[in-house]
Amino acid sequence: MILFILIATQCFDYLELVKTIPVDAGPKSVYYSPNGEYVVANCLYGHQLNIIDPVEMRVIRRVPVGGEPVECDFTQNGRYIWFSLYDKDEVCVYDYEVDSIIERIDVGDIPKIVKVSSDGRWVYVSNWGSATVSVIDALDFKVVKEIKVIRKPRGIVFTPDGNYAYLANMGGGTLSKIDVKNGHKKIKDIPAGMTPRHLVLTEDGRYLYQTNNLEETVRKFDIETDRYIGRAKVGRRVRTCVLSPDEKYLFVCNYKDNEIGVVNTDEMAEIYTKRTGNEQNGHPIGVTISDGGDYLWVSNYRGGVNVYRIIWRED
Questions:
Q1: CA–CA separation, 3 and 205 (whole Å)
Q2: pLDDT attached to residue 287
Q3: Which domain holds residue 96?
Q4: For the chain, does the N or the C end have fewer beta carbons within 10 angstroms?
């Protein structure tokens, strides 16, 4: 006698708006801390980091930074917030425990993405203007190398083993592979379509997802074969994206359409869209997700931070 056991799986259903959180002007990006205790909104025009309590869904700290913060990442399980100042050519380190900026580090021209390596040792910064990647030693807060890349570098990811990093050259239409362990050397450029912008990597390091801004697509790249294996058509001026915890869905900021799109990563097809605002209060540009996959946070560049409950169904 053969028993067939059907195991229910969670499938995405829809997004339900829970709250719009007022923040300072120009929230460029939004990130959960690694410990899940707070959310950071980098407010470009407000010249502040807004620290948000994810349970109460309200701003609990406003941190003046003396410039235009763009992106951030974390070390020491969220104690240190590393963020780029677009207009000052600096990366700064904010100590959450003492509520103070403890370091200001000069980097290349117009820093954008700040990304910490998987072992926490290195911080890579993509410098839009100078077409370089600044390599910072996270232990002594010093730049140890500048890697020359093609043009308008943007997204960065590190492989889980810490051996390699991938960089989106938005102005050069390529994906650069960098050898982290052997001197931070660029070892190859891979054609990546028009205007590759943001990168996310699966937990096992096998697949990389890449938004292509003007191409209005999300591409799927196989790390093992160095090949693109899928492409999903999404909305206009695609910006940041984030994977669901089970990695079956990709939530994508379709900036021009004022929408969040949801892509099925197996089929590589957009299956759902949710409007986040209008020309006055919309333009989703940053997105982050809670560890349990219950809430999606979206920063609207011309508005506040929208918090959505992710509704799952069992199939």
A1: 35
A2: 98
A3: 10-314
A4: N
